[in-house]
Amino acid sequence: MVLELKNITKNFGGISALTDVSFKINKGEIFGLIGPNGAGKTTMFNVITNMFLPTSGEINFLGETISGIKPHKITDKGICRTFQNIRLFSQMTVLENVLVGGHCRSTSGVLSSVFRTKSQRTEEENTRKVATELLELVGLSSYEDVIAENLAYGQQRRLEIARALASNPSLLLLDEPAAGMNETETDNLFELIKKVQQRGVTVLLIEHDMPFVMKLCDRITVLNFGKKLAEGTPEEIQNNPDVIEAYLGSE
Ligand code: ATP
Predict the structure, then answer these.
(1) What's this model's pTM, rounded to 2 decimal places?
(2) Is residue 231 scored above 60 in pLDDT?
(3) What is the chain's mean pLDDT, rounded?
(4) How far apart are the CA of 165 and the centre of ligand 1, in A?
(5) Looking at the keywords, is rRNA-binding present (predicted)?
(6) Residue 151: left (phi > 0), alpha (psi -120 to 50), or beta?
(7) What is the pLDDT of residue 109?
(8) Which residue puts its alpha carbon closest to atom 30 of ligand 1?
(9) What CA–CA distance (Å, rounded) separates 30 from 220?
(10) What is the pLDDT of residues 183-203, one digit of tens each?
(11) Which of 77, 94, 149, 245 is deepest in the core (most CB within 10 A)?
(12) Is residue 49 a contact partner of residue 19, using CB atoms and an 8 Å limit?
C-alpha cells in the first residue's frame, strides 16, 4: 500500500469540508477522487500534502505517518502534485521548469551552488538528463527552449506533469488534469498518465470528466458533502444508485 487515509476530518470554522473519510491506495494504481463541486476533493489534496492540517485523522505514506510534516518536506518523502489552475514558472523555459522540479528533491542544491564539487556537477548532469527524458515522455522535447507561457494549454498541463515527475515521486496527485482540454489533448493526457503508471508511479487524480475517469482509473472514491459516499471499480461506481443520484445523474 502507498497511501492510507484514516478517518480524516477537516473543518473550516463552522464548515466541515471533510468528515471521517478513509481510503487506501495500492502501489501502482490510478485512483480517482470524484464528487460534486464543494465535495472536499481539493481539500483532501491539501490535507495529504499538509498544506492544511486535518482537524483529526491520520495519513500514512509508504508505512510511515506523514501527519504534521512541513509541505515542502512532503516532496522529499515522494509525494508531488499539480494544481487545479496551472502554476508554471511562466517566464522560464520549458526545460528550466522541469529542472526546478528536479531540484526540489535534490539534496545538495545543485542549481544554487556557484562553486560546484565534482559530485554536484554529476548530479546536475543527471538532473538535466532526467529532465530531457521527461520532456520526451510528455511529448515536449522540441519545446525545451520555449518560454512556458507560450505553450498551448494542453502542453502547459503536460509540462506541469513533467515538472512534478522530475522530483521522482512515488505518488503523483493530479487536480483536474483534463479540465479545459479538447478531445485530442484529453486523449494525449490519457496516454501520458498510463505511461506514468508504467513507470511505477502511483496516481491519485481529481477529475470531473467522467468518461475519462471511468476509462483510466483502477478504483474510485466518491465524496459528497465531505463524506465518503462510495468506493469501487469504475463499473461498481457507475452502477451505484447513491452515486448516480448524488453525482453521475447530473453529469
Ligand atoms: P470543486 O470540484 O468545485 O473543485 P472540491 O470537491 O474540490 O470542489 P473543496 O474545494 O475541497 O471542494 O471545498 C470543500 C468545502 O470546503 C467547500 O464548502 C469550500 O467552500 C470549503 N473550503 C475549502 N477551502 C476552504 C478554506 N481555505 N477556507 C474555508 N472554507 C474552505
Answers:
(1) 0.91
(2) yes
(3) 91
(4) 26
(5) no
(6) beta
(7) 39
(8) 12
(9) 9
(10) 999 999 999 999 999 999 999
(11) 94
(12) no
Residue 116 pLDDT exceeds 60: no
Per the structure block, which three cell numbers stand in for 29?
494504481
Of all protein residues, whose CA lies closest to atom 27 belonging to ligand 1? 12
CA distance 155 to 159: 6
- The response to whether residue 83 sits with its C-beta less than 6 Å from ligand 1 reads no
Q: Which amino acid is at 223?
A: L
Contact at 8 Å (CB) between 91 and 148?
yes
